[in-house]
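Q: Hi! Curious about what Putative dehydrogenase looks like structurally. Here's the sequence.
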Amino acid sequence: MTSTTTPGQAQAPAAAEATAEAEAAADEAAVSFEPDVPIRTRSHRIGCVGAGAIMADQHLEAYRQAGFPVVAIASRTPANARAVAERYGIPKVHDTVDALLADTDVEILDIAFPPDQQPAIIRAALAQPHIKAVLAQKPLALDLDEAIALRDEAAAAGTVLSVNQNMRYDQSIRVLKQLLDAGVLGDPVFAQIDMHAVPHWQGFLEGYDRLTLANMSVHHLDALRFLFGDPSEISTVTRRDPRTTFEHEDGIVVSTLRFPGDVLALSVEDVWGGPREEGFDDDFFIRWRVEGTAGIAQGTIGWPHGVPSSIRYASTHATGGQWVEPSWDTHWFPHAFIGVMEQVQHAVETGTAPELSVADNVRTMALIEAGYRSIAEKRPVRLDEFPV
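A: Let's find out. The predicted structure is below.
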């Protein structure tokens, strides 16, 4: 007698059971996910340098939500500092950065200034004994030699110097790191970060001879280091972007990196994306993908659309090959900045090195320097050419 049951009907119970098992495994795994850091310390007083979009809309909003005490602010334009102080209830506005640095209420200095001006502010802060820590922007400086000098000077002064590599605190990147560390994807094989978006607040970049690689690729190259360790080599190619109105070399940048275990990674930055004419419906995005021997993970960074970052993954052993999509309500901007300042707060409290230490960041700066050598010499560059 021949059965009249179709293959789809026969497999339905098994498929349903597999799906249920995958969901149960995913639920169990999700319990250990930590897309945002717990706040361990929030008692050390912050003085802010800068009142532009990043400070006003991201740093200070994050600190407000976290309950971090901001006691003073200064900016190149005192009127802007006063407006931001009123918005966030900051008790003191200093007319100059020097006046803020001399304010003995300030324990942690938070800088949001262009990188050509940042080293001088850091050095002035290192001379103030009441300033226990400095949170600097990335890139730390315009070249590797300056970054190394700042690292060594901070160590000599006994001051914590941390660098705001905030993509390490993006929720999707943090969960991806947790998946990799747990072996959910098996051995990583290939990774890619692809950015097509315009950082509208960084008009100061127009005056630099180093543009996209130093100032935007630095996010992604550092995130790849966070995920996979230090690469052995980088090969970077670039072209001038004809959609800009100023002279530059590295407008659109593509970097290929090789990591331990022969992991291959690609980082793409198209940060003058367009057309940008009035009424043109843009297609801006930042996406990433990681493939391993036992699974795949892919995700998006929620900026610039004002939505949470996302991740979806499938694993042969952890999810039964089914796709799982954990979610959260927090965003890269501003909530990642809570994690960045929290690790500085905790370093001051415990006398330990911050997670985003300047010593580690110098290795990211070395990777940037190697990328520029690759552009200039049109060859892959090994990182051991830049001992740090």
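A: A fun detail: Residues 7-30 form the longest helix (24 residues).
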